[in-house]
Automatic annotation (TrEMBL):
Protein name per UniProt: PPM-type phosphatase domain-containing protein
SUPFAM superfamilies attached to this UniProt entry: PP2C-like
UniProt key word Ion transport: no
Record keywords: Hydrolase
GO molecular function terms noted in the UniProt entry: phosphatase activity
UniProt domain PPM-type phosphatase: residue ranges: 2-109
Domain of life, source organism: Bacteria
Residues forming coiled coils: none
Amino acid sequence: MPLLMRDGKVVKRLEGGRRIVLGLGDGQIDVAEERLEPGDWVVFHTDGVTEARDADGTFYGVERLTDQLRRSAAAGHSAPETLRRVVHEVLDHQHGQLQDDATLLVAQWATRKEEALRAAPR
């Protein structure tokens, strides 16, 4: 389930709008709505992220994902840097061996402050 981050914290799991795997079923889609605010991040992930296992079989888990997102936001990291950090942490958890597809997408409602930083000369 996607996660909604607001003000650097995961505030809820977005449970609506789910459907079965693409290409299966009758084509019906449940639509859900969520009111977003400037600065919000929506974090989409496959089970290959949360179900990544270490050598002892322990899942990476939603709690660890949520904690990494919170720590990255608290450190002021951008969405792309947060994404990079989560990917490296998941790979480290599995000792570099992916066992399943692992897809992660961070969609961010950029604020004027972030847009200005991107436009600033380097």
